[in-house]
Design goal:
The complex is a heterodimer.
Chain A: E1 3-7, E2 11-12, E3 18-25, E4 35-41, E5 48-53, E6 59-61, E7 69-74, E8 79-84, E9 93-104, E10 110-117, E11 121-125
Parallel strand pairs in A: 2-11
Antiparallel strand pairs in A: 1-3, 3-8, 4-5, 4-9, 5-6, 7-8, 9-10, 9-11
Chain B: E1 9-12, E2 18-23, E3 33-37, E4 44-47, E5 61-66, E6 69-74, E7 83-91, E8 95-98, E9 102-106
Parallel strand pairs in B: 1-9
Antiparallel strand pairs in B: 2-6, 3-4, 3-7, 5-6, 7-8, 7-9
Classes of the chains: A mainly beta, B mainly beta.
């Protein structure tokens, strides 16, 4: 059974950079079948996809966050990580890591879904 | 940008059928999926590729897609089905997009 676990600071100051790591167990992050993603949820609000990374390091991001986000992988540790810079209070959220299936459906349309999620890590941006 | 619109809330009586909709431009041509999230828990995938159920998801959960709307249907709704439900799809401009979520109340 695949298990994902987020780790990182609970409190970060405005203008600083958030660094979170997702440790994957029960499966290899180096599989060519799927990707790895970060998704966040501000308190009391909905889900927002941040970005996705492949084990090779190739990544793609939410256009609204692209200028502030970097995702990278460490296959030796079976981990992938998120850096989000220039933080503001609006970045306060529960941050989830998840396994991302990305494929083309029967109609040739690109599609995606997230089938395994971590428990989430609450990050508060405050001075 | 590509937006997915869900009703903020849906109420249903136990044993009845709950229907949650998700609307978006050309959504009928995409493979939508649905997640259930209970308070304090991580989201759980309940429907993918528009109509498929992951292993372990009860048969009372089903999905459909027509026109610009994807629909999650829960037959014989149980109190344990209460929670927030999110649709999600892929768009060529925005990549991964989530709907705003629908709070399902069973009363």
């Amino acid at each position: 059974q695949l298990h994902l676990q987020e780790s990182g600071p609970e409190l970060v100051k405005p203008s600083e950079t958030l660094s979170l790591t997702c440790s994957v167990s029960g499966g290899s992050i180096s599989s060519s079948s799927y990707f790895w993603a970060w998704i966040r949820q501000p308190p009391g609000k909905g889900l927002e996809w941040i970005g996705t990374v492949f084990y090779t390091g190739n990544s793609f991001y939410n256009p609204s966050l692209k200028s502030r986000v970097t995702l990278f992988v460490d296959t030796s540790k079976n981990q992938f990580s998120l850096n989000l810079n220039s933080l503001t209070a609006a970045d306060t959220a529960v941050y989830y890591c998840a396994r991302h299936w990305d494929y083309y459906d029967g109609r040739g349309q690109r599609a995606a879904y997230f089938d395994y999620w971590g428990q989430g890590s609450l990050v508060t941006v405050s001075s | 940008s590509f937006d997915l619109t869900q009703p903020p809330s849906v109420s249903v009586s136990p044993g009845q059928t709950a229907t949650i909709t998700c609307s978006g431009d050309t959504l009928g041509h995409k493979s939508a999926c649905w997640y259930q999230q209970k308070p304090g828990q991580s989201p759980v995938l309940v429907i993918f590729e528009g109509v498929k159920r992951p292993s372990g998801i009860p048969e009372r959960f089903s999905g459909s897609n027509s026109g610009n709307t994807a629909t999650l249907t829960i037959n014989e709704t149980q109190p344990m089905d209460e929670g927030d439900y999110y649709c999600q799809a892929w768009d060529s401009r925005s990549a991964v997009v989530f709907g705003g979520g629908t709070k399902l109340t069973v009363l």
